[in-house]
Amino acid sequence: MKRTVLVIDDDPGILEVIKIILEDNGYRVITLSNSCQVLKQVSKHVPHLIVMDLWMSGIDGHQLAKKLKNNHLTKHIPIVVISALSNIEEITKQSRADDFLAKPFNIDDLVAVVAKYLN
Amino acid sequence: MKSNFSSIENQYRSFVKNFIGIAFQRTMDFIPVFFHGQVEKITGYKERDFLQGAPRWDQIIYPEDLPKIYRDARLLKKIPNTTIDREYRIIKKGDEVSWIREIIQNVCNQEGKISLVQGTIYDITRRKKQEQEQERLLVQLEQEKQKAEQLALEAARHASELEAIFTALVDILVVFNNKGMAVSANPAVIQYLGFNPVGKSYNQLLKATNIRHLDGQPLLKKDFFSLIKQVREKKTLPAQNFLLTGYRGEEVATLLSASPIFKDNKLAGIVVIGHDVSARLKLEKQKDAFIAIASHELKTPLTTLQAFTQIMYKYVQNNQHQECKYYLNRMNSQLNKLSGLVEELLDVSRIETGKLELHKETFDFNNLLKEVAEDMERVSGTHKIIIIGQATRHLWADRNRLGQTLINLLSNAIKYSPKAKKVVVEVTTNNNRELVVSVKDFGIGINLKDQEKIFERFFQINHSSGHQFPGLGLGLYISSEIIKRHSGKMLVKSQPGKGSTFYFTIPLEEKDV
To answer: How far is the C-alpha of A57 from the C-alpha of A6, rounded, in Å?
Structure first.
């Protein structure tokens, strides 16, 4: 059975490109551009991994990651944050996310970090 | 009758003998009839000398005073019953000058004609000297008085100038005495702080103004007093930014500086000057925020573009159209360049906000240098990079950041020596204390004026040939900041037309193996 990755980003370009790369590598990808729907979506279908942007308009990605990690339904799901922020490493720790990917990233790096949690 | 006469004569003799002056009678032409009394004491000559006409009285008169004596003589000759009381100088035997007072009157003969003069002479040298001394003192006193008045006038002028500066100064200025008490403050202070600091101590002011560092951390008492101590040790402190609480309770970023005041070479107090920099800092903050947001926003589409390019490249991997691969490669390298520029802008905003963090690890510097040099040789294709020497110890430093510095120095060396074929990198370990790396090119060089500014951000060389070199002017700024963060130094030596050498040092820490 295919592993499911939930990708959350408010930029449709990033969403699309990550979807293509991960699907190419044999994952099932669900994308969400509106972070408000995350909890609803997650309760419908629990993904194996969440890849999310930290800096989204409308919501603080940092808070969202924390929320997911505090929810008993979602706290076991590994979270990889993507950001162009300079202090991404620190924020990753604070938001209790599992890993990070700095923008701009290489396809291979994205594939590698996803594989780390799903294979 | 006779005895009566002789008794008068005796009385007269006794009078003359004890007379302190000279009694005389002479002709109008200075020929003495008689000359009695202290003649020798007053003139140095004997009575006899004058009676023999050697010298004649007018010959011993001080030449400057002679005309007056002659004028008097004409008067005495013409007008009967004239008495003149006069003071003048004579030259005594032995050339000593003394002052005399002479009371002289003319005497008429039996025909009623003026024939003689007679009178008395006293030595008044002592009195004259006293008078002269008094006069000299008076003159001196007057001069000193004038001088003092002049000085007072000048001081008043200075004071009024200072007063005007003090009052008109927009910056705040507070003078403290040696006991740490504010003794004066200009009007701007009251507007700035909302109260008059005069009469308050350092401690009270520290509390009242709530001085903090720019990051909001309070300025600790001990840090504050260590600053004061430095000023008292005759140093002028370099200006530093602090936050003060202004008169409306708002935060005012203030550039504070302090200097000692000396009086007669002794410390008399401290003057503190503050300048409102909140507007400037706000602008800088906005600019930094702008750079951060702009480069962050640029990164998102860049990421997408790069990813699509890479995906496409995989699709055309087995394609027969080689051009496609070539074009995609070109696209990718341009995208890399673009993300490098964005990264530079982000680095600047990291440096400006103090967020350039080092991730130190232990590594072999020689390996890093070799990797970077090989990469640069491959990318440039024109220059050979010659490495001389090597680091004898492992480094405890941020490998990525040092790599970035090396890339920057080497790409500059290549960029600014288009006609050269090599770049020489020399590595030494100085006494096991620090690593010294130099990157030498044989290019256009940098003139002295530009060398001073070369590590400033956004600085770019305008080469005299009119040739423009691409870039944002940030590489050396970032590199030097990276080296600074490693407690090292970066400097340049260069000769226009011959080339440049950039040096950087990294202190070797205990953890270096």
So the answer is: 18
**What is the C-alpha separation between B168 and B134, in angstroms, rounded?**
50
Nearest Cα residue in chain A from B310: A107
Q: How far is CA A67 from the centre of its chain?
A: 14
Mutate to test the interface with B, among A18, A103, A110 (most CBs of B within 10 A): A103
Q: What residues form DSSP beta bridges with B494?
A: B500
Give the span between the Cα atoms of A16 and A101, in whole angstroms.
17
| Distance, CA of A6 to CA of B69 (rounded, Å) | 132
B153's enclosing H/E stretch is helix B125-168
Distance, in Å, from the CA atom of B247 to the CA atom of B28, rounded to the nearest integer, reads: 97
Nearest CB to B303 within list A85, A86, A104: A104
Q: B204-263 pLDDT, tens per residue?
A: 888 888 888 888 888 888 888 888 888 888 777 778 889 888 888 888 899 988 888 888
From first CA to last CA, the distance across chain B in angstroms is 141
pTM of the model: 0.53
Q: What is the pLDDT of residues B119-135, one digit of tens each?
A: 999 999 999 899 989 99
Transcribe B397-461 into DSSP letters: E-HHHHHHHHHHHHHHHHHT-TT--EEEEEEEEETTTEEEEEEE--SS---HHHHHHTTSTT---
Q: What is the largest distance, in Å, between two alpha-carbon atoms of chain A? A: 37
Backbone φ, ψ for residue A85 (5° rounding): -65, 145
